[in-house]
Amino acid sequence: MPTTAPSIPVSDIDPFSTEFLSDPLPLHEELRELGPVVYLPRYDVHAVARYDDVHRALTDWQSLQSGAGVGLSNFNHEAPWRPPSLLLEADPPRHDAPRAVLSQLLSPRRLRSLESRWQADAVALVERVLSEGHEFDAVTSLAEPFPLRVFPDAVGIGTHNRENLLPYGDFAFNAFGPMNERVTDPAKTIGPTVEWIAAQCRRENLSETGFGAQIWEAADRGEIGYEQAPLIVRSLLTAGVDTTVTGISAVLHAVATHPDQWQRLRAERELLPRAFEEAIRLESPVQTFFRTTTVETRIADTVLAPERKVLMFLGAANHDPRRWNEPERFDLSRDPSGHVGFGMGIHQCVGQHIARLEAVTLLDALLDRVSSIELAGAPRRHLNNTLRGWESMPVRVVV
Ligand code: Z7Z
To answer: Which residue, judged by its Cα, is nearest atom 9 of ligand 1?
Structure first.
């Protein structure tokens, strides 16, 4: 008698709809509880939302490739909207040299030289915001201006038109999803921004000392090809701004809604890196991305054919009660390590040390001056097909 494969649960959930993005947690739970693998016929993809399965999928780069794109679109069949990233949208061995260059450049040791300047920038920003009043928008006054100030300086791009960086990233992260209302025709909307980004990546437009120049120097040393250098600079400009704005917003929201945890941070500053990590777990600024099966691939009890897109829910994994106690709580007593908010495996966020340094430096300056912080109105979400961020977050502080 022929055996039949166990049937895969099916869901008509649209993880890129306004409804889902506005309130994902109940739908994450639904996906997790349906089973380890859920088929989403709307996009003809398989979803994975439990911690163990997401973790395993992320580390299995041999069966679950990135080279066919980490969005819904399969680059084997559809042309990408821009030349693929040499890091994100590549597999070993092509992935390895660009990755090695960035991972050395962005290592904690190399970042030490930025610390004192960033501390001074953070203090200056906090002083200026507080001098204007004790109620302000934490997104537009802190979470956006700080990374927009320190990160482009560190890369070494010019000071003109830096405001292009946020819409460019917003577009790129939307473009991992389907062609819905959040994805406009790039030729009609961000076309000029795409050209501006490409110009910033050219050697002659970069300062002599920033990360950008150092990427070109890696090409001088033969570690990467000269044709690769501008694309690696582009990776910094794509993945390094909206993500950190979202991450800093996440930790600001967490402390503004957990006054006891702010008091604990005031008393125990050494918990600051953990506060950032826990906020990344709790909010998962990067909510989802895809892999593509290279061969017949087993996930839990489901066998997927080659060339299938698999959608991994980092946010759902980071709230899986199978792995986390009281996952909805922002809790500085928990050890959040092992969360998948920065991914896992060979593609795990290469910029996470710089993101952490930005967040910790800004919060440290805030802790020096602010004895309490709370929401002063309802925060408003910024919806994006991939990033879970905030448009606005009114806060009130006591100095
Ligand atoms: O290299 C790149 O341009 C790049 C763009 C986006 C690298 C990474 C990301 C990214 C980061 C994608 C987090 C999804 C999640």
So the answer is: 239
Atom of ligand 1 lying closest to residue 234 CA: 3
pLDDT, tens digit, 9 for 90 and up, residues 265-278: 999 999 999 999 99
Tokens of 248: 């800093």
CATH no. for residue 72?
Answer: 1.10.630.10
Identify whether the C-beta of residue 313 lies closer than 8 Å to the C-beta of residue 54.
Answer: yes
**Ligand 1 mean position, distance from CA 88 (Å):** 6
* CA separation for the pair 91, 64 (Å, rounded): 10
Cα separation of 272 and 34, whole Å?
36
Q: Residue 126 phi/psi, 5° resolution?
A: -60, -45
Percent of the chain with pLDDT over 70: 98
Q: What is the C-alpha separation between 153 and 210, in angstroms, rounded?
A: 7
Residue with tokens 């020096």: 368
Residue 314 in contact with ligand 1 by CB distance below 6 A: no
pLDDT of residue 187: 77
Question: Is the beta carbon of 385 within 6 A of some atom in ligand 1?
Answer: no
Name the pTM for this structure.
0.97
With the most atoms of ligand 1 within 8 angstroms of its CB, the residue from 87, 88, 291, 347 to mutate is 88
Count of structural domains within the chain: 1
Cβ neighbours of residue 220 under 8 Å, at least 6 residues apart?
Answer: none
Dist. CA 199–CA 147, nearest whole Å: 21
Q: How many CA atoms lie within 13 A of 376 on its CB side?
A: 15
Question: Alpha-carbon distance 306 to 295, whole Å?
Answer: 4
Query: What's the rounded Cα separation, in Å, for the pair 167 and 165?
Result: 6
Show the domain range for 336: 3-398
- Closest-CA residue, ligand 1 atom 15, reads 286
Q: What is the pLDDT of residue 318?
A: 99
φ and ψ of 349, to 5 deg: -40, 115
- What does residue 10 show for φ and ψ, rounded to 5 degrees? -120, 140
Helix (H, G, I), strand (E, B) or coil at 342: coil
